[in-house]
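JOB MANIFEST
job_type = single_chain_structure
chain_count = 1
residues = 420
[input]
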Amino acid sequence: MTHPTREQLHQMAQEKSGELVQLVSELIQIPSENPTGSQRPVVDFVENYLKAAGIPYEETGNNPEFPCIVAKLGSDEGFSVILNGHLDVVPAGDRSQWDFDPFCGTVTDKQILGRGTSDMKAGVAGLLFAMKILKESGAELRGNIRLHLVSDEESGGEYGSTWLCEHGYAEKADACLIAEPTSSNDIEIGQKGGLHIVLKAAGKSAHGSLGGFKGDNAILKMAKVLDKLPRLTTIEGHFKDSQRHALENSIRSTEEKVGEPGSGEVIRHVSANVGLISGGTRPNMVPDYCEATVDVRLPIGVDHQEIVDMLDSIIAECGVEGITYDLHWKSEGNYTDEDAVIVQTVKKNAEAVWGLEVIPAYQWASSDARAYRAQGIPTIQYGPANTEGIHSYNENVDIEDVVNAGQIYVLSLCDMLGVE
């Protein structure tokens, strides 16, 4: 039997690019909002796609409302690559803010429109498309491809990638490619960790008419602490010399994307956002309790004790009694070394397809990549996207970005799995 060459597979991906665009459109037309909708229709669609392509799959997970799909091509010997993506999307929100139906999947001359185009059904389509190309062609793989599609990323991943990693589905993997949205010219190789700080202020109730003369106002005590909380952002990450190149790339790239002077420093520093605050019972009562939740993102190398020490220092400096806090840790900052096979392979092929420099960089947010990196698996994110519509209105993706991503995935899988 004659097996196709790498170049023949590349040509096949180019010739079938229309199928990839159509697949993205069809996925967008299936609402899969999380947490407000159902994942069942989109899961059924993907399973039917895999069945039609002749790719064996299994539905798994521990929550029937958020199932996982796993599939495999190749043998148990050789290099093993996980392809990961999520099928859920954030809610469309206020429909009046959209210029088009968020689930239209309309294909224009240059773009595909709708909720999830960038985050991340275009990326999922690219992974499915690449697997189908390799399956249809009869390519000889010196290793295997493992597909992990989940439906619980937008709500934290408890029933998705985290569950798969904790239950052995990622064992003995040599690399993981997540098709999360990135710019075409950067590969995400690391991201910040996160925790929620729940600050609690205890006061003493009294009649509101005696406020300032009797009682102990818990809200005012909390306000003193919150006023000094920005000091958390003075904590810097601890980067190795080998990470300096990616760090500088990330700072520059972030500044360009965010468009605010100095915003690139969010990669190097802790960020802290007071997102929730509640306190008091009635306006005519001195409040005896106040609580605030702070979302904190940790750059690479920052440990728990640094956060604790800074919090204790802030509270002590405020000089108020009755302030306590709980820390709810999500993850540490995590990363993949720039010289990892998965990084260099995707970089090489992305540069060849796009004809521009592609830089490894760190991300200011977080994703399912942390679950695979926690297993010691070199993991990257690289996927088609127009970032301005993500988690907002009028989300879209460029057709060129989708088509190029499909080719990059095929070529990178060929290189990692020995297709010459």
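[summary]
The chain has a mean pLDDT of 96.
The radius of gyration is 24 Å.
exit_status = 0
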